[in-house]
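Lab meeting prep.
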Amino acid sequence: MPAKNIVRVAAAQLNPVLDSATGTVDKVLKAIADAAREGAQLIVFPETVVPYYPYFSFVTPAVSMGAIHLKLYEDSPSIPGPVTDAIAAAAKAAGIVVVLGVNERDHGTLYNAQVIFDADGSMLLKRRKITPTYHERMVWGMGDGSGLKVVQSAVGRIGALACWEHYNPLARYALMAQHEEIHCSQFPGSLVGPIFADQMEVTMRHHALESGCFVVNATAWLTPEQKRSQAPTPELEKAFAGGCYTAIITPEGRHVVEPLRDGEGLLIADCDLNLITKRKRMMDSVGHYARPELLSLVLDSRATAPASGLPLAAAAEALPIETPASDRVVALPETRKAALR
């Protein structure tokens, strides 16, 4: 049993099953059980690993990807639904916090969703990537500010962002201002090339330093056969080279264990949360090192809906959002909200 203030975390570098709606879910359930047997209290999975990241969209012209895009619709779960019910039950049975990347189907639109389940199986957060990146805009809709929220879990205060959301410093600052202790990040992996993994490492280690928190990062990994299946021509297979960097990082920017850069596997490490105070004593970006009278963030944390005042609108509402009690994030004033409408 880990000592007080020590949290054992796991990061899963998973190989998704590209031709099965339930295949990846079965692997996720197994990884949860495997991590729990090793004493892990938190496990983080890659970006939209359920059912699989839309690798095809990176190399396939829009005019040609109708059939495979529709297949992704067919394979993608609604939230809540049977898939998230199964993950919640596994989290509860194992007593482990789970951070899962999901292609969420909401009627006629897919979203890049991150779902956090507490150790009792309750769903703490469902958030959507605020802006899909480049080719992803042909696949996913946009999220809103309601998901930029840190939640209290059995292992501490958790925040989550997906992939290049980490290049939006204001999105990261929104979570930093809510005092996240463990940041859970997700990338696709097996994409772009080795430079993608190099950039990812710089970004994740920087966030750990700047936020003064632990970072648990997970990427997926494709087999050579899967890469060939996603590439329309042999020369495009190189688009799926490298890009894997599953890691656990301290608030001082150090790797707790050696990162996983190739193959499928599970990283497990103990994180001493006392290091958060050690780091922030020197530099607290949202505390004594901040200057809110000069620089502050305005966050609109409302959940958006296509219509209001209709019976269907209630079904479109996101989970309740509590405005963080922090003078580093300023809630959008009603007068300004009205001006933006």
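Slide two material, second protein:
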Amino acid sequence: MESTVSQKLEALLNLQKLDSRLDAIFKVRGALPEEVQDLEDEIIGYETRLEKFNNDLSSLENDIKTFKENIKESEKLIKKYQEQQMNVRNNREYDAITKELELQDLEIQVSKKKIGESQARIESKNTDVEALKEVLSERQKDLDTKKKELDTIVSESENEESKLKNDREKATKKIEDRLLKSYNKIRDNAKNGLAVVMVKRGACGGCFNIVPPQRQADIREKKKLIVCEHCGRIFAGVEDEIEEEPVKKKRSSRS
């Protein structure tokens, strides 16, 4: 059976009340959840950089190892060529061996230079690693502090939040999908999270613009869904002002 407009408005207003109570809980937490998330993302970034530094250091160490092996190989060849040079038969063989010796000597010099460059880069990267580890340690401390603070706040309202979320889930099932989508869209665009409001003191309970008397009368009837022409919020009804009874003055007794 399709709900009446009055029932739809009642369901929407109930959902709004639940969401407003949840908003109040989240407001107490302030920016802490975002700060925790930002710190976690920042730490992941630092850890990624640290991993890259360690990979670079490992690569440089392997390069040094390779250069040292090249030096040993060149030294072996030099020893071999020197022995061959003692037994040359002509100048051409002598010159050829001499060139090989010079080439291997050059290989040794290049390898030693590259070892020096790699060691300098390792030293520089180790300095960067230590600085990064220090920053990472500080940010981890900040994260631990923020998480502890957030966990304390969350634990204080955990039961209430869980109940509200459960009630909210039940409340959404009483609202048709199209109307629920409209509600969520209005709520997302509203700074105070209000999508459904009452007319209070002749004005919209969301943007506080005046609602004409005839429009208020239509809202009271609840025959159709009416939205604020200024902010687009849904009107759930009109709150009647309770007039205070005038205080009767006590008659002063004649003396």
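Talking points for slide two:
The radius of gyration is 40 Å.
DSSP finds five helices and three strands in the chain.
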